[in-house]
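Lay summary

Proteins are chains of building blocks that fold into shapes. Our project writes down both the chain and a compact code for its shape. Here are two examples, one after the other.
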Amino acid sequence: MLLSRGRACVSSVALLVAVIVTPAAAGRAVTVASFVGLPPDSSSGRVLMRAFRGELDSGWVALEKRAGVGWAPADTQRHDFHLVEAAPAGESWTLELSIRLPPPMRVPSRTQPKPNQPPERQRVSNVRRSRGFVVVATVRPPVSWGRPVESAPVTYPLYFADARRIVAATPDLPGGAYTFPWEDAGRVVARAALETLLAATRELSFDRRVNLAPATRIESEP
């Protein structure tokens, strides 16, 4: 069952669960044990989670292949993973997910305060202070799998190269600020989760990896 980020967020996460849960289908069931880092704004969270569910349940994933020292778009690969709300203990693949979002930019209200009234508090907008985005995925197999699986968290440091910058860079904000693409982020989280699952089941060949576009990986130094 999808868990909340904390007791204070139980109701909002329960709403997100209602958005993404569908009846079980044939294939390998996947439950989300935790999803940490969802935005506090429930509408943004719903957009992200709906895209996450749709992408993971699509039944296929786009790949990249090694091309010299880099990677290039490749074919697609079928898979039979699908999300379920809950499953008997030990009978599903389990995902633990965490995302790290760039800090929001607070935008001052454009309305003038009324006489003898304090100014309005700055509102938190959909504007973020960078294009960066980090996904951390941990996979645990069902009891029936019967083979060793790497259970260490896998970290995907990313950025959205095409994110629209709507606040110019300043000395106080060297990188400017960007509109954060919540729908794209949901798809990217699903693809990162699928790469982790397919790597655990050894269904990705050594020269393939999942295409996380429109996010760009921040490659580690060789």
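And here is the second example, written the same way.
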Amino acid sequence: MKTKLLKKLRKQFAWKCAQKDCGGIMMDRWVLLNNDQHIITTYASTERLLYSMLDYNAEYGFAYWNKLLHTHVDKMMRREFGRIGTIDSRHYKHTL
């Protein structure tokens, strides 16, 4: 299923990772080209890149793309929530 999904996304989009120098630190920046609308956008993470591709396809109302979008958003939010918990606990230990 993942292979079929990637083939469908590659027909509509092209994406590349471009590294940007931010004061001596190399940061990844993802560049996305929408072949349908000829729009170039940039993202800081692959999660946001995938979200924008799924969101674009979900606008057409296809149940398959909507399901993928909601599954991805759920996973993304759970990861961010998990990161917040580790940051808060580290901060709490240092303040004691």
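What can we say about the second shape? Residues 2-95 form one domain.
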